[in-house]
Amino acid sequence: MQATTTTLPAARQLAEWALGLQLCDIDPHVVERVKLHLLDQIGAQVSCRELPTCRITQEYVSKFGTAGTASILGTRLRLDPESAAFANGTSGSSFEIDDYGGKGANCHPGCTVVPAVFAIGEAKGASGAEVLRAAVVGFETVIRLALASMPSLLLERGFHHTGSLGVFAVALASAMIERDDVEVAVNAIAIAGSHASGTTEFAQSGGEVKRVHAGISVAAGIRSARLARLGLNGPPTILEGSRGFLQAFCNDFDARYLTEELGMRWHFPERASIKLYASCALMQPHFAAYDMIKAEHAFSAQDVEEVILGCDPLAFVHTGSVGPRPKDVLGAQFSAEYGVAMRIVRGSNDVGSYLDLEAIGFEDPAILAMAERTRLERDPECTFERPLGRVTLRLRDGRTLSASSYAPGSPQNPVSRDDIQRKYRELVSRDFGDEVARRSMDLIMNLEEVTNLGQITGLFEGAKA
Asked: Which positions fall inside the MmgE/PrpD N-terminal domain (predicted)?
């Protein structure tokens, strides 16, 4: 374990950096990347808002939330930011199409940071520039927390990074938009430590609650900042202290990542990742590796006798526990055997593919037979820092075909701006039409020029007929 050597607590360093940061001080490349992730998350939120878990959270906040001016995107509901962000965070992480951090920084920043800054910004009447500035800090904060705590937090302790890390970034971003002073921001981070939670038992035995972890984290981060604003204080060494977050949540950690080169080096654009498929991010390298084999060799699904998935330790545990016969959508999205079998048999792992299989109880005989012939194994070339996925096919004619790949959309295998924008248009236009998709994309990609977030949120108040 590596503890920080500075005399100032990490929470204070983060607060001073965030509150003193100006948008003009940020590298344009960083700003551009954050805008693309804002776009990606908004697309996830509005396109998934009708899923069962999202409806539950919307019903919850409608019954028990407080009236306000923050939008639940894709509906006409407007509530207090804490309630709206809870629902939006759930929608944004409800079908495994949200962004993530890679290259040693596994996390899901978009589904916590974006719902928070939009809800607070809309209620506060903040400009697009203020919201963008807070989003930049939020994304970087989540990535730094992931670098400090992963993979131990998840692999060794079983905590879910979405709920555990996002709450701190939301508390800090909230303090920025509300224009709090440093003391309030430090206490907001400190109080957030008492809200950090969420386990990965869902990947072992199921449970839709996983999809609510982001919403819980967002609401808790906003609540933390509000409590600090009212005068509640917390331990300033909450992150790196001897009984702080890292010590409590990790067997091994490196607190230096929290503040080292803060303001000089941006980890987010080095590690930011966009999903192309509706599954756990740790499975997506295998989809790409299979596609490489399929592009280079002639064979059919019926020719495949055995599939071997070479995995890094995190993927082996996180996607290898459900087994080849998932019982629900979440299980299918976290079963490496079933997901790869889908790709071999049906050639797709998009939202529609999983929903179609849900309609038949995941009982497609061809996919189940392929999944039963698929097994995971640890591959020494696939590591946490080098998250390759290897696929080896043993064919009935005696051939053995193998390939390895990084996930498309990851730093090692990036997708283009056009790819990300195409994904957004496809998600949004399905329910809201091409014109809303185009107009909202233009506004988000020029967020610093937006004077009122209602210009964006208002576009999604009702789906097309």
From this structure: 12-256
85/460 Cα distance (integer angstroms): 15
Average of pLDDT values for 73-80? 96
What is the end-to-end Cα distance of the chain in Å, rounded? Answer: 56
**CATH of span 10-273:** 1.10.4100.10
The pTM of this model reads 0.94
**Could you tell me where the DSSP H helices lie in 243-307?**
245-249, 256-259, 268-271, 284-296
Share of the chain above pLDDT 70, in %: 98
Q: Provide CB contacts within 8 A for 56, sequence distance 6+.
A: none
Assess whether pLDDT exceeds 50 at residue 113: yes
Counting Cα atoms < 13 Å in the Cβ hemisphere of 38 gives 28
Q: What is the DSSP string of 351-412?
A: HHHHHHHHHTTT--HHHHHHHHTEEEEE-TT--SSS--EEEEEEETTS-EEEEEEPPTTBTT
Q: Taking each helix axis as running N to C, give the angle between helix 10-20 and helix 161-177, from 0 to 180 degrees, rounded to the nearest 10.
A: 50
Q: Nearest-CA neighbor of 168 among 200, 150, 151, 143? A: 143
State the average pLDDT over residues 217-232: 98
